[in-house]
Amino acid sequence: MSAYERRNSTGNTTFNIGENTGNIAANSRDFTMNATTNKDDGIDPAAVVMLARALRQAAPALELPEDDALKFTQLATRLETEAANGSPDPSRLQRWGGSIIGILNSPVVSGALGSVLAAYTGTVLPGLPAG
Fold first, then answer.
1. pTM > 0.85
2. Cα dist. 24→16, 29, 41, 64, 96 in Å?
3. Strand, helix or coil at 3?
4. Which residues contact 127 (CB under 8 A, 6 or more apart)?
């Protein structure tokens, strides 16, 4: 590559390298280097869609007060929509997942189902406190 670079008369060369794990500086002189790092956030969009559907199906069994039930199902729908959009925003998924866990761990939910769903949500959306 350095021989090619020395022949370059314009001085501007773009290298696109996939799966790079280090820094690259061709000829290491008079250059500008920009790096984009894609972080694996550990969130599987298909699993989030399944979670959202399970949450909506379980909502009636949780016997939530009407306002909480509405909020709960709206959050589940937001999760599904965001996860299915092709490029989900992990911070939104985490925020909405945290709100769902908050409802599931609140005094208005009793029984094992709420605990199981909270744990499942924490598994699908890593980094959230499960309880």
1. no
2. 11, 12, 25, 56, 39
3. helix
4. 42, 94
What letter would DSSP give residue 9? S
Cα 113–Cα 81–Cα 62 angle in degrees, nearest 5: 20
Is residue 63 scored above 80 in pLDDT?
yes
| AA identity, residue 21 | T
Q: What's the Cα-to-Cα distance from 70 to each of 9, 39, 66, 88, 124, rounded to whole Å?
A: 64, 34, 6, 23, 22
In the chain, helix, strand, coil percent, each to 5?
Answer: 55, 0, 45
Token readout for 46 is 């298909």
76 or 7, which is more confident: 76
pLDDT given at position 108: 87
Total residue length of the chain:
131
